[in-house]
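Quick one, T. Sequence first:
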Amino acid sequence: MINKDSDIEIIISRYLSKESTAEDIKILDDWISAAPENYKSFLAQKNVWEISHPAFNPEEIDVDSAHRKVMEQILHQHQPAVSVRPKLSFLHYWQQVAAILLLPLLILSAYLYFKPASQIAETYQELFTPYGTWSVVNLPDGSKVWLNAGSSLKYPTQFSDKQRVVSMQGEAYFEVESDKEHPFIVKTKQLTVEATGTAFNVNAYAPDHVAAVTLVKGKVAVTLDQKKTISLSPGEKIDYNLATSLYNVNKTNTYKWCSWKDGILIFRDDPLEYVFKRLGQTYNVEFILKDAELGKYSYKATFEGESLNEILRLLEMSAPIRCKEVSNRNTNNEKFEKQRIEVSRTMQ
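Structure tokens:
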């Protein structure tokens, strides 16, 4: 049985704190059911309780200190001249508490609004370059990226306070702004490249069994499958075989591997198998060798601005091959199939 208002206030407080007993719950239920005004009073205290116990880190605001100030202000405002203080009504008391506790919540809102960028959820941009072309993008830190045909790049609209991280697939050439305090990291499915200020090319097309990094200037650290890390010096290229987990680091003519960003394809005594792979990546074409030995034929050429048909004609003129298109028709879903070209040996 409830003898005075303070009894029900104590029971409600225990209930909201999840410390109530079965007897408390029964008393509270009977009291709420007794009159509509009681239910309104319960809701008022419940609302104030939820406001004063928000879902944020208590270290952000000193709630205990705020509560003490609330009580001091309430007692000061309602202290009579005589020694006996008249009791505040239940609802009036909690209205006073809610009004003053609003200040810490306003402080929290201001904190969230002016929160450092590093603590705000990151948003990303994702770019995809269609086959037959390439694109250039400037990153938030001033770094520059050339994205080759059939490639994608994902990067944050604002880099974090600790490092600059992007992810990609396909092929990209990076010119990274120097910043030793904030490493620049490129992630692919096969490997991770870390740099501070440098220029390098990453080739990591999804269907390929080999991923490669070519360093033009500066210094990079290449981590293979999150296990082994290899440092490269300018003029070096690392080839990593995904099937065998083996790698090779060799000195090379770096422009041969980076010239695509200038619209140039350079082949220097490369097997035709590699030539067709690069052409396939650039133009989204599947080459079918009717004679496997043709793939070993050594080829030397430089293509700049030619169309695929022009390149095929030049290949036929300079190598013992014939090229024949075998598929470019609509499928049932009204999309074009990837162009397929058969390569066969010419009759001697």
